[in-house]
Amino acid sequence: MQGCSKAQEIPAGKVTSVLSLSPSIHNVTVSARDLDENREVTNTETYPVLDHGFALDLPFGHYDIELTDETNAMLARYLDVVVDGEVTVDAPTFEQR
Question: In the sheet that 54-59 helps form, which strands lie side by side, from edge to edge?
Answer without folding.
Answer: 54-59, 12-17, 86-88
